[in-house]
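Tutorial, part two.
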Amino acid sequence: MKEDSRIERLVKAARLYYEEDMSQNEIAKQFGVSRPMVSKLLKQAKDMGIVRIRIQPPGTDQGSGELTIEKLRKKYGLWGAAAAADGGNDQLTNAAVADGAIRYLEGLRQNRIGIGWGHIIGDLVSRIETCGREVKIGTHVCPLIGNGGVGLKNYHSNELVRVIAEHSQAEPEFLYSPASVLSEQELNLTMGLENYRTVYQSWEHLDAALVNIGNFPSVPDFASEARYGDLLVKQKAVGRILNYFVDGNGTIIHSDTDYAIQIPLELLRRVRHVVGICSANTKPKALNGVLRSGYVNHLIAPEHVIESVLEL
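Running the prediction step on this input gives:
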């Protein structure tokens, strides 16, 4: 919490200086500190990537990317966002998103990190594995959801956590359960296991969470028909966050037969920094629905996805 307060102070100082044109002396009086201290705060904001200075020669493009991010932040009440430049194809675009997400998570400087799953998070983990340096995204890392029962590494949450821990020196924690079970009895048995209770306690104390934002229908499907019947179609699901589905208004769709094993929504709501991440094929209506849910307060996404959601 102390680190969060420090970041909020840096953001406030930067906004007063760069957006509201207050002098360092005026900011010093408002903060009750010396002018050299304000100068130090502004330098720290630059070092952490909160402030990015861009030299703009006359007659060139006037920073449309920054304006787009600011519009997105204001529309959805986000704390922060980053747009990745679109590549020549989805693979290159997703690589840019993954690299941007690594830098963003490092800039947050949080300790206890929860990791979701999905194609784009798998790409991020692959980039961490091959970047040739130690990433600094936390001291503890745990999964936010059980392991997917498909033969795709991107949905093996424990493997994603293992790789991140190996390349960041963070202490890993694993969840030894599937992403969903078949009955309420199985769910209760799983939730009664010591391993689940240990991970649950980690969820209660997370500083940050990285969650995927996906489309509906989703691929893989993860037994959505067994979990929801025809509810997702009837209630017009548009997207997914972790393994929760949302409609166009951002309302989470609930089912009495959904026995998914993932961080409960009430705990996700309490996480200070929830960073959503989108791939190149994320549909604007899916992103809009998830952002309107209020569970995500940071976003990393391709430029074209952000531009499309702003047009809705």
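The domain at 2-47 is CATH 1.10.10 (Arc Repressor Mutant, subunit A). In part three we will examine how such features are distributed along the chain.
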